[in-house]
Amino acid sequence: MYSKSSRILPGLLFLLVMFLPIGGTAHAQTATSSSSVTCTCAANGVSCMLSTTACSVTVPSIPACPSVVSLATNAHCLGDYIGQCYINDTQSMYYKYSCPSYALTVTQGANGTISPGTVSLTYGSNQTFTITPASGYSISSVSVDGVSQGAISTYTFTNVTANHTITASFVPAPITLTANPVASITLPTNTFTETYTLTGGTSSNTNCRLLDYTGTTTLTSYASCTGSITYAGPSTAGTYGYYVQANKASTGQTVTSNKFTVTVNPAPTCPATTISNCALPQTTSGSAGSCAPGYSNTCSYTCTNGIWSKNSNSCALPTYALTVTQGSNGTISPGTVSLTYGSN
């Protein structure tokens, strides 16, 4: 560097006096939009130039004058004075700049999180926050710097140049309940299983029960919502309506499903017939049977879903003795015999 002090104009001399450290002690300066600032802020600071003229391009390689790099206007980086030099008879001051950091402060309500939490960012950085409700809850509102952004699940701060706040609140998620159709059943079976779909609740925090077609009469007691309810319905053929109801005690919510119906078909009839000499009547259920006329002993068959099945059958024709008595001097052949009913 070479000295040109004899050529400094009064105005420039005054500028130098304002910036030179008193007693050789370094002090901080603030770059503003009224200065020609030509550096880029970085977390570890960079050498920059604060010029009295529009020196915003690369400075010629002079030992005391570092190269100039670009800086966004109004960066407001704080710098320490490190020296001066002359470039083309123009006096310039040089500073070491380090950018300030800004706090993005997270405040969240119960039953949810904002990730990654409160952070500190350097000038111009970006940061995305993710808002996640706890199980059984939903996002109520997200506010940034006190201004509501709605029930959003992410928010990104871009080109950060100031402190900010982000806040989220959460509310119980609404529960919904959908009952699925049930296939018809046929007597004598009258038990059916209803399946349903529950959202916004789990088996650990929500109970379910079955209601009759009016939606007011309780048919089963509350029990953990497992996705299905088994119930023994009427033993009379017909179509019956039902509802499933769910209650989430932690939030006080109670919802009732759509109506579903169960058709109970009459039991099929076993016809009147004779099986292996066992006479059977027409019936829909139960056991019956008697040996056909002319047959002795017993028999029993059970009617199930229109089909006879044997329990026992010993029906048989009775036997009769044909006894021969003969005098002397002749024979009767074949002698005494035993014959079944109707034989010759």
In short:
Helix content is 3%, strand content 46%. The chain has 344 residues and is mainly β.
Mean pLDDT figure: 76
Report low-confidence residues grouped into runs of 5 or more: 1-98
What structural class results from the helix and strand content? mainly beta
Helix content: under 10%
First-last Cα distance? 151 Å
Task: Describe the main β-sheet briefly.
Answer: 6 strands, mixed
Cα gyration radius (Å): 50 Å
Which of globular, elongated, flat, extended, rod-shaped describes the shape?
Answer: rod-shaped
Q: What's the number of helices?
A: 1
Strand content: over 45%
Q: How many DSSP-defined strands? A: 30
Question: Could you describe the 3D structure shown?
Answer:
With 344 residues, this protein is mainly beta. 3% of the residues lie in helices and 46% in strands. The protein contains 1 helix and 30 strands. The strands form 8 sheets. Strands 15, 17, 18, 20, 21 and 22 form a 6-stranded mixed β-sheet that branches. Strands 1-4-5-3-2 form a 5-stranded antiparallel β-sheet, covered by helices on one side. The longest helix has 10 residues. The protein is rod-shaped and about 150 Å long.
